[in-house]
Amino acid sequence: MRAGLQLTPEARQQITAADEVFYQVGEPIAAAVIEDLNPHATSLETLYGTTKRRADTYHEMVELILDSVRAGKRVCAAFYGHPGVVVAPGHQAVRRARAEGYEAVMLPGVSAEDCLFADLGVNPGDQGLQTYKANDFLVRPRTIDIHTPLVLWQPVVVGETKAVSKPNYRGIKVLSELLADLYGPEHEVVLYVAAIYPVGEPTIEYVTIGELASADISMRATLYVPPAGDPTVDPEIATRLGLSEPGDDSISVSAAG
Q: For residue range 45-83, what is the model confidence (pLDDT) as tens digits?
């Protein structure tokens, strides 16, 4: 992200040293950065199709990457953000390569969630964090703590199995109804899009849960649901730990300070 500025030195080194690079970044300047680092770079974007299941596209990506590995080449696959955060082919390629006896590693990167922490001032060390793909959040019922921040990835493709160019508002309506049951329709949430250019700003749009299904949602948006008040403190445990009175700031300060 940030047009290649968030590319780590370690990742830059691997891209440069590879015999062949495959990338899926969704942004032309970042693509140009990768192609400048290594002229043997191929975009994976062309594998997407509106009539094709995303799972099939991911399978094709992994096969293309592994075909090059099997040919004896040193291969690097580059994905936007963190290659292991909501990037199915990143994990699949590493697992498959290792299963076939090849050495494979995943290097960490800067995810949209990392940018969200910085831009929205969210500290997961204060009240914890719940984070799910929006589709997974809906179809696999869980006990949600409304006093803990909630991050939902890819809300625009809830209920979709194919690549889409516009939000699926039918699925978003289902999502908003479940969130309204938990938090109430007037609870304010954030539609967040990290800045993709160094001269740009992140998109931070505040809407109520009741407005979510009619909001103009970016295809890049991540949904952040702030906590509905502070979680309660167990006074007995606080006393046993030697902390101050419940509600004192020292309870939320980590040992590292």
A: 999 988 889 999 999 999 999 999 999 999 999 999 999
CA 4 – CA 121 distance, rounded (Å): 23
- Render pLDDT for 114-161 as a digit per residue (tens, 0 to 9): 999 999 999 999 889 999 999 999 999 889 999 999 999 999 999 888
Q: Any idea which residues carry the catalytic annotation?
A: 54, 58, 80
Cα–Cα nearest to 18, from 96, 60, 73: 73
Q: Which of 164, 137, 169, 162 is nearest to 152 (CA)?
A: 137
Torsion-angle region of 223 (φ positive above 0: left; ψ -120 to 50: alpha; else: beta): beta
Q: For the chain, percent helix, then strand, then coil, each to nearest 5?
A: 40, 15, 45
Task: Answer yes or no: are the C-beta atoms of 205 and 215 closer than 8 Å.
Answer: yes
Distance CA 175, CA 214 (A): 12
